[in-house]
UniProtKB/TrEMBL annotation:
Organism annotation: Vannielia litorea
Protein name (Swiss-Prot/TrEMBL): Argininosuccinate lyase
Domain Fumarate lyase N-terminal: 8-302
Reaction catalyzed: 2-(N(omega)-L-arginino)succinate = fumarate + L-arginine
Pfam families xref list: ASL_C2, Lyase_1
Gene (name only): argH
NCBIfam families given in the database record: argH
A single GO molecular function term of this UniProt record: argininosuccinate lyase activity
CDD domains on file: Argininosuccinate_lyase
Compartments reported by the entry: Cytoplasm
GO biological process: L-arginine biosynthetic process via ornithine
Length: 459
């Protein structure tokens, strides 16, 4: 039999494989609540504008509430023959209330309907991402507080560069995640316009009130161009873009945690509750949560590229390709929320190892820059010359298997006779970090000020 919703011109039903490739109900049922909210706003507006009667609108409203409770209660029978959430809801509505249900689709199309539902869904996800990111920030902040002045190596090229503080390193991620929050907020503000009422693509001849439906659904205004309204998916791409950047940040942190929990580093010990063992090697404790975050992030990046690829060749306006917009976004949203929750839990419960961090902070000639700066400040050498002198001292220390503070004053003077005993004060890692008082630098006083600022911002 032909399709009950659009089968007027058809004499036969679709092939089983056609139904399988066509149906989106398997995933778009996640937008049921948004679909029903959109339909309720549309029906109320139709009555207000005199397009349908008040009693029809009331029957539709009641019917939609019943449909929603059936879906929420798990008794709703989803049908692949009815393709998607829009037609599943509408068909059940008609089953429940009869003729008034058939008037709901006046001045509307599935094209503006799906664009509306999906926007509402993605908007909710932008909102949900914010507290989830904040939770990771709070966990990092409490780690920063715990070791605001603990010294550790700062790296470039994963080679020891200069000593920094643990608190400073934690706060670097707090900053990155702060920008992630604002990216989701920006995306939300930009996507908050209503496609509803664009109808199939050209608008409608019915005297609909798009301002009213926009307002009822919490949108700032209706979208200005009906073709754009049904054709574009940049709102979903902005969500995926924000999610991808946030995911990339999580993945870098996860990578550091994997490195830091290795036997060669031991900078942190992950809590047992966020680790697993090996079925053969009894000694093993693996940072699986960090590895899984790092691994799962690929799904988010993939979804981002996947949707760009779906969209890039489509002429205006709607094409069925666009039905492929949802699964990637759903999966990316789920993955991001899971990764954020796991990261918050892991960071909250991990134990930084103060001694290991301090021990590593002094390796790799990490105070060489302090020595060069000292030569500039005290001996008035041009920085390039100071760099050269220091390089020679590093070479001397390296050749004899020692660190810079272990060189004798005589050895130092063999390279640069003007060097005095005072130089040794700048070679300690504690003095090094304490001296980095420039704004944004790693000095503990700076770090404490930033912790205070973030504490305020996050409460
Ligand atoms: N299930 C469809 C989607 O997700 C809804 C829109 C269908 N519109 C259409 N004219 N076939 O994109």
């Amino acid at each position: 039999a032909a399709n009950a919703m659009w089968g007027g011109r058809f004499s036969a039903g679709v092939d089983a494989i056609m139904e399988a490739i066509n149906a989106s109900i398997g995933f778009d049922q996640r937008m049921a609540q948004q679909d029903i909210a959109g339909s309720r706003a549309h029906a109320a507006m139709l009555a207000e504008a005199g397009i349908i009667s008040d009693s029809d609108a009331e029957a539709i409203r009641e019917g939609l509430l019943t449909v929603l409770s059936e879906i929420e209660g798990g008794t709703f029978q989803f049908s692949a023959a009815l393709e998607d959430i829009h037609m599943n809801v509408e068909a059940r509505l008609v089953e429940l209330i009869g003729e008034p249900g058939k008037r709901l689709h006046t001045g509307r199309s599935r094209n503006d309907q799906v664009a509306t539902d999906f926007r509402l869904w993605v908007r909710d996800q932008c909102d949900a991402a914010v507290p989830a990111i904040r939770a990771v920030q709070k966990a990092l902040l409490s780690q920063a507080e715990r070791g605001a002045d603990w010294v550790m190596p700062g790296y470039t090229h994963l080679q020891v560069a200069q000593p920094v503080t643990w608190g400073h390193h934690m706060l670097a991620y707090v900053e990155m995640l702060g920008r992630d929050v604002s990216r989701f907020q920006d995306a939300r503000a930009r996507m908050n316009e209503s496609p509803l009422g664009a109808a199939a693509l050209a608008g409608t001849s019915f005297p609909i009130d798009r301002e009213a439906t926009a307002k009822a659904l919490g949108f700032d205004r209706p979208m200005a161009n009906s073709l754009d309204a049904v054709a574009d998916r940049d709102f979903a791409l902005e969500f995926l873009g924000a999610a991808s950047i946030c995911a990339m940040h999580l993945s870098r942190l996860a990578e550091e945690l994997v490195i830091w929990s290795s036997a060669q580093f031991r900078f942190v010990t992950m809590s047992d509750t966020w680790s697993t063992g090996s079925s053969i090697m009894p000694q093993k404790k693996n940072p699986d949560a960090a590895e899984l975050i790092r691994g799962k992030i690929g799904r988010i990046l993939g979804a981002n590229l996947g949707l760009l690829t779906v969209m890039k060749g489509l002429p205006l306006t709607y094409s069925k390709d666009m039905q492929e917009d949802k699964e990637g976004v759903f999966d990316a949203a789920d993955t991001l929320m899971l990764a954020l929750a796991a990261m918050a839990g892991m960071v909250e419960t991990m134990s930084p190892n103060r001694e290991k961090l301090a021990e590593a902070a002094g390796t790799g000639f990490s105070t060489a820059t302090d020595l060069a700066d000292w030569c500039v400040r005290v001996l008035n050498l041009p920085f390039r010359d100071a760099h050269h002198v220091t390089g020679a001292l590093v070479a001397l220390a390296e050749k004899t298997g020692r660190d810079l503070p272990e060189l004798t004053l005589e050895e130092m003077r063999s390279v640069k006779p003007e060097i005095t005993e005072d130089v040794f004060t700048v070679l300690s890692v504690d003095n090094s970090v304490a001296s980095r008082t420039s704004y944004g630098g790693t000095a503990p006083a700076n770090v404490r000020a930033q912790i205070a600022r973030w504490k305020e911002a996050l409460t």
